[in-house]
Amino acid sequence: MSDPVFVCPHCGNKTPHKSVFSHSYVGDWYGSDGQLANDPPTSYYTGYACATCGDLSIYENHEYDDGSEPNLVFPSDVNLDGSIPEVVARNYRESKRVQKVSPNAFAVLIRRSLEALCDDRGVAKGTLHTRLRSLAENGEIPPVLVEVTDVLRTLGNSGAHNTDQQVTVPLTWQMDKFFRTLVEYVYVAPARLKEFRESVGVDEAE
């Protein structure tokens, strides 16, 4: 059997991957009633080595999965939460593919992700600086995250133009953390709170 071909989450190349280990595990599963399941499914983990960069990726699927794609569990910072709109997540996924090979391109794509976020939140057109300030004025983000977005915007500008400020790989690590903090606040936390309220039957008014 030939090695599977897919996009490496580390280097961004679509390339063959060699299976280097597999592991199965049965853990605790809880039903919708909060009780332990009597017959929990088996989880299967497979580690793959990229033929291009040699780095390791680990994927997981479950015994009851119905032909769905396995979940990437390592590295864990490639995909965004499902509550984040696709228009935002798509730009982010593209940025991760070039993070190591072109830090400047990564910065530009993070800037595009910020623009997509503003579009999704209905912020009026204008400069990105003005639009990000509008998010704070509308109560969408707190003041400290305004400063975070300013850093991302400025580095995005540096990546797009021929300036003395060059985006390095270590800088992209911080940009990545800042951006994920922002979308966690805007999208993920409200979605998790809504899910929790629905699960325990608590209305917002209460």
Instruction: Report strand %.
Output: 15-25%
The level of helicity is 40-55%
**Integer average pLDDT:** 85
Write down the secondary-structure element order: EEEEEHHHHH
Task: Give me the count of strands.
Answer: 5
Low-confidence stretches: none
**Cα end-to-end separation:** 58 Å
Question: Helix tally?
Answer: 5
Q: Structural class of the helices, strands and pairings?
A: alpha+beta
**Any idea what the radius of gyration is?**
20 Å
- The main sheet orders its strands as 1-2-3-4-5
Shape: flat
Characterize the main sheet.
5 strands, antiparallel
Short descriptors:
single chain, five-stranded antiparallel beta sheet, 206 residues, 5 helices, alpha+beta, 5 strands, 44% helix
SSE blueprint:
Elements: E1 5-7, E2 14-26, E3 42-50, E4 56-62, E5 71-74, H1 86-98, H2 103-120, H3 128-137, H4 143-160, H5 169-200
Antiparallel strand pairs: 1-2, 2-3, 3-4, 4-5
Helix pairs in contact: 1-2, 2-4, 2-5, 3-4, 4-5
Polypeptide structure, described:
This protein has 206 residues and is an alpha+beta fold. The protein has five helices and five strands. The chain has helices spanning 86-98, 103-120, 128-137, 143-160, 169-200; strands at residues 5-7, 14-26, 42-50, 56-62, 71-74. A five-stranded antiparallel sheet has the order 1-2-3-4-5, with no helix packed on it. A hairpin with a 6-residue loop joins strand 1 (5-7) and strand 2. The chain is flat.
